[in-house]
Design a protein that fits this description.
It comes from Paramecium tetraurelia. The strands form 3 sheets. Strands 1-2 form a two-stranded antiparallel ribbon. The protein contains 12 helices and 6 strands. 29% of the residues are buried. It is mainly alpha-helical. 52% of the residues lie in helices and 7% in strands.
Length: 318
């Protein structure tokens, strides 16, 4: 039996990404034990780790009370998995509940058949792929796309977690085409379940790729929200929702280096402001101080911050 060359090439591309995942043992990708290719029948046999907890779809059915912290940890795990693939210049391109599994401690990516090597040039990525209901507009329209297509898919996941449905599941293909071509904004439910995450969701589900939040920006924002929620920072002077909105504006308009610097300064300034606010009691001041210090520690662990810390600490003292 003779197989088409493009089929054979696809097989070997798939083997390559599976071999990388097996070798690198990414923490947020399913562990692959063996990969065997049987040329006589043109099939790949993959032995993966067993996950008794099932996929994200099953997890949500069995865990109706998914806390804010759990949601954020889930999204951070997914992003880490994508970043681990990105280290080898691969994109997943099919993020959906069925392709996320839970091993009891963390969420992991599975199903790497749609992974694509992009090298240094995102413009090469133009094939329509992925699950329709979570597929980004630029992919659906056969435009060139980048890792922001995965941000859209993560946004669909977050929407599904919050509202138990997908944002565009009631649209037919023609309606979707008109929505995308005219750059109409998505309509969100009038009942806002979570202000902070809902604001972030709107940044993730921008129709135009250029307007959409980047994967790294999303990662930083989720870490900030996680720290603020942990300490329940929410008061009339500077509530969490408006703070996140302000940081989003900063992060969507600056380079990575400027993002880091301005976020750090933002929280230093916030700390100074809150400590000196007369209506704050000692307990509130201490709570805010610990929250801000934890945020700073979180970002100090990021390589991109290390060089900036010395410069900024010389300029701002608390």
């Amino acid at each position: 039996m003779t197989f088409p060359m493009n089929f054979i090439m696809q097989i070997f591309k798939w083997i390559k990404i599976l071999t990388i995942i097996q070798r690198e043992k990414f923490h947020n990708c399913i562990q692959i034990h063996t990969v065997e290719y049987h040329q006589d029948i043109e099939k790949i046999f993959v032995l993966e780790e067993y996950n008794q907890q099932g996929n994200l779809h099953d997890f949500l059915k069995n865990n109706q009370n998914f806390t804010n912290n759990q949601i954020i940890n889930c999204l951070l795990d997914i992003i880490k998995g994508l970043q681990q693939l990105s280290q080898h210049q691969y994109m997943h391109r099919d993020i959906k509940p069925q392709n996320i599994v839970f091993d009891g401690t963390k969420f992991k990516l599975i199903d790497f058949e749609t992974c694509k090597y992009y090298g240094q040039d995102f413009s090469k990525l133009q094939s329509r792929i992925g699950t329709f209901i979570c597929r980004a507009p630029e992919v659906q329209l056969d435009f060139a796309y980048s890792s922001k297509c995965d941000v859209w898919s993560i946004g669909c996941l977050l929407y599904y977690i919050l509202y138990k449905s997908f944002p565009l599941q009631n649209y037919d293909p023609l309606q979707l085409l008109l929505l995308y071509q005219n750059n109409h904004q998505l309509k969100f439910p009038s009942q806002i379940i979570n202000k902070e995450l809902n604001g972030l969701l709107q940044q993730m589900l921008k129709i135009r790729e250029i307007d959409r939040i980047s994967l790294n920006t999303l990662y930083f924002l989720l870490k900030i929200i996680k720290c603020l929620i942990k300490f329940n920072i929410n008061n009339p002077e500077e509530n969490l929702a408006s703070l996140i909105e302000r940081i989003q504006l900063i992060m969507c308009s600056e380079t990575n280096q400027e993002i880091c610097k301005k976020i750090y300064i933002c929280f230093k300034t916030l700390l100074i402001y809150q400590i000196n606010t007369e209506n704050q009691n000692d307990q509130q001041r201490e709570k805010l101080k610990r929250a801000t210090q934890e945020i700073i520690r979180e970002f100090e662990n990021e390589q991109i911050f290390l060089d900036l810390m010395r410069q900024i600490n010389q300029q701002i003292q608390v």
